[in-house]
């Protein structure tokens, strides 16, 4: 019965848009994956097989998912891995995330990267049912187990730096923060941003808007909602708006362009990844190196050094930073680097809530 279910799942995978990458063969290896201590390669010593399950927005969101995709692309180039990709859709039930992970496994991709905290319930269930499969869960510690690595980041530290940048650049002393979905994780971005701004100017105002509330995760993939939220802030005197809203950030940039104001990107260096027409309004970006976390996981599996548990990528570890593309923060870089050094040394404790 289980084998029949697996065969059906492989056939059904096409309906969920599982995209083969890296030259996988037409005939997938037998389901089941790898045993303890193996490298997770295909039967017969083929390439290491990595299943990548993106959050809403998927590859091409110019932000969070694209940063994860960059880690997979690097692993394909440098480590010769074979990747298969799939993405969540807006409004899908939790069962769809579970099915997506299981289909990747049943197609022979027995090392799974689940991109985003929304995958935590699905990873918890599927990992328990597939003890021979290794998982990397990005942005959450809500699912733990002997075959799960929790890839987390100190988003509040990087957000502090871009908050300070915004406060050093504002002419109105009014800033804005647009969060995609009001969750504990995104509140970390808000907390750091506000703390950084107020470290520069305690009387500065920060307007805050979340696009959706869980379980509605469309706030990470709605350009229109991001644009409307930012427009309202610019109309209320904000002249720099920071977004932590995934694909919705494109709307924030559009609003900044129309208003002749500035915006701050997130996750990727968005002065390089956003639409070319709006890149000139991006002051800086809070760079969250999801690509580093993804690549680190894949390499550990390939090297046989995989270790379950929480791994934190912070400023000190080089997993978080701010971008300088475009030169708009060149004149304040020394001040930002001073804040950075004080966070790394522990002199500044950045709040995460």
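Sequence proposed for the structure above (353 residues):
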């Amino acid at each position: 019965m289980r084998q029949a279910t697996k065969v059906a799942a492989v056939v059904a995978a096409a309906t969920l848009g599982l995209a083969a990458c890296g030259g996988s063969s037409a005939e997938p290896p037998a389901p089941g994956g790898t045993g303890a201590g193996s490298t997770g390669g295909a039967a017969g010593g083929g390439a290491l097989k990595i299943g990548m399950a993106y959050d809403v927005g998927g590859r091409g969101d110019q932000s969070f998912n694209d940063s994860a995709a960059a880690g997979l692309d690097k692993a394909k180039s440098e480590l010769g891995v074979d990747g298969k990709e799939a993405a969540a859709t807006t409004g899908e039930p939790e069962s769809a995330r579970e099915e997506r992970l299981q289909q990747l496994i049943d197609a022979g991709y027995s090392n799974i990267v689940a991109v985003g905290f929304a995958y935590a319930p699905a990873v918890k269930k599927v990992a328990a049912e597939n003890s021979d499969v290794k998982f990397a869960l990005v942005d959450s510690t809500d699912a733990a187990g002997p075959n799960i690595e929790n890839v987390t980041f100190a988003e509040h530290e990087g957000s502090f730096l871009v908050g300070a940048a915004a406060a050093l650049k504002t002419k109105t002393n009014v800033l804005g923060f647009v969060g995609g979905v009001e969750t504990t994780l995104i509140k970390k971005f808000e907390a750091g941003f506000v703390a950084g701004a107020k470290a520069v100017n305690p009387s500065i105002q920060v307007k805050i808007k979340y696009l959706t509330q869980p379980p509605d995760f469309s706030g990470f993939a709605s350009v229109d909602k991001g644009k409307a939220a930012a427009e309202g802030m610019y109309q209320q005197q904000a002249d720099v708006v920071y977004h932590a809203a995934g694909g919705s950030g494109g709307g924030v940039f559009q609003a900044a362009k129309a208003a002749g104001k500035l915006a701050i990107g997130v996750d990727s260096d968005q002065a390089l990844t956003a639409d070319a027409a709006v890149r000139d309004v991006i002051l800086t970006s809070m760079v969250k190196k999801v690509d580093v976390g993804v690549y680190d996981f894949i390499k550990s599996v390939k090297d046989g050094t995989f270790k379950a548990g929480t791994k934190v990528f912070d400023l000190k570890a080089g997993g978080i930073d701010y971008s300088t593309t475009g030169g708009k923060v060149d004149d304040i870089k020394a001040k930002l680097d001073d804040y950075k050094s004080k966070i790394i040394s522990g002199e500044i404790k950045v709040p995460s809530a």
